[in-house]
Amino acid sequence: MMNKLSLIQLALLSLFGVACTDTSTDALDVSGHLSVTMPADIDASVVTGGSVSFYNVSNGITTTVPAPNPADVSFSVLPGLYNIGYSARCTLDGGVEADVRAQALGVTVAAASQSVTLTAFAIVPVDDLIISEIYFTGSLQTSGDQYNGDQYFRLYNNTDHTVYADGLTIFESQFLTTQKFNYTPDIMDEAVSVDALYTIPGSGREYPVEPGSSLLIADMAINHRDINPNSIDLSHADFEWYDESTDPRNADIDNPAVPNLDKWYCYTYTVWILHNRGFKAYGVARIPVDRSTYLANYRYTCNYDQITAAGTFPMSRDCYRLPNTWISDVVTLSVASEYKWNVCAMALDSGWTHCGTIDGDKNRYFHAVRRKMAYMAADGRVVLSKTNNSAHDFNPFVTPSEIENQSEDGVKTIDGITPCV
């Protein structure tokens, strides 16, 4: 039981608004032991500054304990359900600095001695373009009907040197973040299951992107205001994805002045649009083989059970697998009321971001997710957050950059939050 002094301490913490982080053990009565297993290519001796956070899902309190020796961490927390995270730094071969992370969600800590084991992964700085924005919700027409043709990605050069976009592939996950099955074979630790692959053309050095610059990749690179006055002009996009639809009632529009992405594969026989409620993950990758080789050798068939009131039915899906080692960035989307799981390995993305809070949220239209600014480099270049956690890296439910750029009120931001100066 807590003594009188402990109760006073908790009251003072609450009074001064610092109860969200509790490093005191006076009021904590469940002891346990935690160990972090390092990746095979990282020696624990080069890991520094380790700590473990215990986020209590019920009361929102985070308890943080130091972890100088990741193999032997003692902790004391109140009984409850926890999201546990380990964070540290390390120096890899060649002097490259990297973050080391581990995570476990929904861990029950009982009123007894507890043992927890986490498996760590390294977050190595990305030497490629990353996704800085996804405008997936689309807009509304004057009639109130939804309009999807103005969706887009923005890719950003977060490095300090020129990156060539030639050959970079944008992909969409096959699985939904709102529907979880026990898929077999389970390949998540090795690859992402994908149902759309579109690649930037070029021979290797045709499309340079300078440090701090971006590329705009549109669904339809047209002035959408000609069709929908509520929309935006995307005729200035750097690229567009174009589909030759098999259904004349659902045809795509091609702007011959804007280069098309090379379509490697897509599940649909009509036109590909982003999931406008945000139930998928999107990412970028460098595929080191040609299209025909990839399509011949990387097909993936998964099996699962569909459980319904009428019974259990064995099901299967066909798609393609994209090895994790080819992937440089993943952005996971979902909504709080429907989220079930992340559809990629934790090393690629350990969180998720959103527009709207419930399925079918009508407030989601005209909104995007935009990557947060981490800091301003000495040369004036904006460096964006890249921790492989979309919840941490992205500002959710913000105004798309193209709506800002084309509005008449003059309000411009770097990341949907931070004002431009």
Salient structural properties:
globular; 4 helices; 7% helix; 421 residues; mainly beta; 7-stranded antiparallel β-sheet
Number of strands: 27
Q: Which ranges are low-confidence, i.e. pLDDT below 50, for 5 or more consecutive residues?
A: 1-26
**Count of helix runs:** 4
Oligomer: single chain
What is the 3D form?
globular
Largest sheet: 7 strands, antiparallel
> End-to-end distance, in Å?
54 Å
Kindly state the percentage of residues in helix. Answer: under 10%
Protein described:
Strand 10 (139-140) and strand 11 (146-147) form a beta hairpin. The protein is globular. The longest helix has 12 residues, at 4-15. The termini are far apart. It is built from four helices and 27 strands. Strands 14, 15, 19, 20, 21, 22 and 23 form a seven-stranded antiparallel beta sheet that branches. A six-stranded mixed beta sheet has the order 18-17-12-9-24-27. It has 421 residues and is mainly beta.
What is the element layout, followed by pairings?
Layout: H1 4-15, E1 30-37, E2 47-56, E3 62-66, E4 73-77, E5 80-91, E6 97-109, E7 114-119, E8 121-123, E9 129-135, E10 139-140, E11 146-147, E12 152-157, E13 163-164, E14 168-173, E15 191-199, E16 208-209, E17 214-218, E18 239-240, E19 262-266, E20 281-286, H2 291-297, E21 299-308, E22 311-323, E23 327-332, E24 368-371, E25 373-376, E26 382-384, H3 390-393, E27 394-398, H4 401-406
Parallel strand pairs: 1-7, 17-18
Antiparallel strand pairs: 1-4, 2-3, 2-5, 5-6, 6-8, 9-12, 9-24, 10-11, 12-17, 13-16, 14-15, 14-20, 15-19, 15-22, 20-23, 21-22, 24-27, 25-26
